[in-house]
Structures
1.
Amino acid sequence: MSEAKTIQTMRLDGGIACLNFVNTKDNRSKDAGIDYLQNYRHLLDLCERLEVMPPKTRQVLERLAKAYPDQAKQEFEKAIALRELLYRVLSQLTEKGKPPELELQQLSTQVANALSYLELQFEKASGEMKLIFTRPALEQPSWLMLQSVAELLTSKELSLLKKCPACYWLFLDRSKNKSRKWCSMATCGDVSKVKHAYHRKKKEQKKS
């Protein structure tokens, strides 16, 4: 399986761009798991798949990455550090109802920096005004994730944030009765059912 194919087939169970970004580290309940992000190009693949980056912008950033490979590598490493920062903040929110203070300060600083590059742009076709990043910079994938997490943290949907008890992925529970437990019933839900059935059978065997 190619690297790009790995990104393209990754499950998008988060419900919002920043959570799918955090979930690019597969099965956080284990020390060793698949990391879907291995280089800067993977960041661009993810942004395009999440539909937060137009193809034209991606092409510009690809050219910049080729022209400045060392800077692209540096921005990729910063993006991975951001991913782990987001996980710590959001994970603690699900567990304790409040974020870790130091990490929240770090995130706040990064959000403020990223949002300073947003510009208002009027789209004639739709007649809508939008806030977008118009500056072609290698930092843009991280900026997009910071914009996404800022929107989540300041919205009512923050109350829908949950952590999967099986793989520790984060997701928004938008189910009708807010009873969704797993990131995906087809994966973690089924695995849990199988484990539960196995342990129940073992207990029954011991009793007999």
Note: The two ends are 47 Å apart (CA to CA).
2.
Amino acid sequence: MFAIEVRDHVMIAHSLARPVFGPAQALHGATFVVDAAFFTRDLDENGLAVDIGLATSVLADVLKPLNYQNLDDIDVFRDKVTTTEVLAKHIFDGLAEAVTANRLGPGSGRICRLRVTLHESHVARGWYEADL
């Protein structure tokens, strides 16, 4: 299996309104470093799994509606607890839509799996990974 992984970041605010989250129940900010891995079983005639430039652009496009936003105010997250895991799945879904729409160019058809990793800090990260 081959993979191309690209990185970006997103700055958000949110609250995790359940007792299990302790002080994070209050509104707070977070900056997540986001890695997106695009997996293929083979390479094209140029030795590429996926175009890195297109992968970088698609990740930026998926993150743009979240950046500098209070997730508590975004309709798609209404009644959801926006944990790292929930955000990773949301970003995964946006990337999967881009793959289906062939936004990663000719390599889109080879992409068989995605992994989205959110780094909360230098000591903690979470991810969502699945086949397409």
Note: Helices lie at 52-63, 84-100.
